[in-house]
Amino acid sequence: MLCVVIIKPSKYGMTGYVERFHRGFMPNSTVPYIRSMTPASIDGVPIETYAIDEYVQTDLKYLDLLRNPGSPTLLALVGVQSHQFQRSLDLAAFARANGVEHCVIGGPHPMTCDTTVLQNRGVSFAVAEAEMVWLPILRDAIRGELQPVYGREQRWAQELQAPVVIPPSKRDLRRYFVRMLGIYPARGCPFTCNFCSVIKIAGRQIRSQAIETTMESLRLAKKAGVRLVMFTSDNFNKYSEAKHLLEQMIAEKLRIPFFVQCDTQIARQEELVSLLGRAGCFEMFVGVESFRRQTLLAAHKAQNHPSTYGEIVELCRKYGVVSHFSNILGFPDDTAPSVREHFDVLRGLNPDIASFYILTPIPGTDQYDDFLAAGWITEPNLDRYDGSTPTWKHPNLGPEELPELLYRCYRRFFTVPHIIATAMRTFRPTSGGLLPYFGHPVFSRFSAWRKVHPMSGGMFRVRCDSAADYRELRRSRYGLDLVPLPKSLVLSQADAELNRKVKIATG
Ligand code: SF4
Hints:
This protein is of the alpha/beta class. The protein folds into two domains: 2-157 and 467-478, Rossmann fold (3-Layer(aba) Sandwich), CATH 3.40.50; 171-451, pyruvate-formate lyase- activating enzyme. Helices cover 34% and strands 16% of the residues. The protein has helices at 30-36, 85-97, 108-112, 130-143, 170-173, 198-201, 211-223, 242-251, 270-279, 293-298, 309-318, 336-349, 366-374, 401-413, 416-426, 435-449, 471-478, 493-500; strands at residues 2-8, 21-24, 41-42, 45-53, 73-77, 102-106, 124-126, 149-150, 180-183, 186-187, 207-208, 228-231, 258-262, 281-289, 322-329, 353-358, 458-461. It starts with a strand and ends in a 7-residue tail after the last helix. The model has no long low-confidence stretch (mean pLDDT 94). Iron/sulfur cluster binds next to helix 6. Iron/sulfur cluster binds at residues 189, 191, 193, 196, 198-199, 234-235, 263, 287, 301.
């Protein structure tokens, strides 16, 4: 038998403790995907699978799976982003020190960043999409030896052969405020925003799974008691089969509320917004980022025209969808007055929800490469690259000023009158109770008052273990205290070729 332990690692917070919550906000989408891709047996060898989202583990019992295992065990750390990378290395070091033979780390960070300095130290890296490497990894684990790196030649599959997602158990669904599940009908985004990791992780060519795969995942989710679905694809309005999927959801009367991410060109797609509303879309997340055209052009986000942002709010109102605008503070040309001006324009447009992030050069992106080459990056600890902490030397805004502006934006946006007006305007009893309409805004305001980013993972923080508990393990396995800031990985010829086929309109 092979025991497979799939963990989405959390991160170390500012205090050094692992971030853990009694109730999470958004479940990780990768964990159920990888679990759904894991067969019950391979070549007659049974596989027993455990799937764990570390953010919502409030005690350390799950680590027992990694202690003196009775049978061959594979630990897979999945969906690992740069701010979770050190935590994933520590979990792998812990597992290896306690008798687990096979460990592999996959997800955005290893896919887009050079991990050479950490290779051949008893932990493997998956640097391609799971569909391409997961079965070979399982086979090698059964055979008794993993390769140091999987998927070096090609990051993305030409065509998406994704599984029907098996929903988590009721017990695991209850770990979140709303029983929610992430589903990716498509992957990739054609645009070229220089701060974006999505195009490095999923490529610019949009690849979609069969509509029936998505429909079956939705049916199973509903049957399992999932109350909300997140279509995690960027961007849903660029997915060419979106209309057919929505029509099928309407025809089948699926009535499962869902969340989508769209680019700002949705302003010209009224028919799609109307279909979204009829199919049960409760919230549309749009990356507006900035209200200044020159800032957007400098960030290679030419497809965003601030003059159309108001139309998105109006369309969402017309078709009963909550509008959620995501904003980035601290672009290189931002100043304190320009951030205040940004806020005033946002306030005037009055989307239902807003979220704010500090511009973070995410390792693996073009912007990170530029900032690194210019010597602007000041933060050596990857744990801090989470969108809420200054990590580079801004020409106009000091390291204390940016978080102050961030939390002030949250406090000023989520005023009591705004929260009440939005809840009254948008509430629908079918969409996961009051949380999306009332709980989320109230929590955002409360978090901002405490100077904690509202999107940091959940509510009711629990302290169990900290980075200090793993320091010696990290030193002895990898020979370092902090992982050095990595170089971004260059695309292979096959991946670059796939990107070259993309045609986009930015007008
Ligand atoms: S539109 Fe969104 S997903 Fe696409 S490149 Fe820009 S930031 Fe990334």
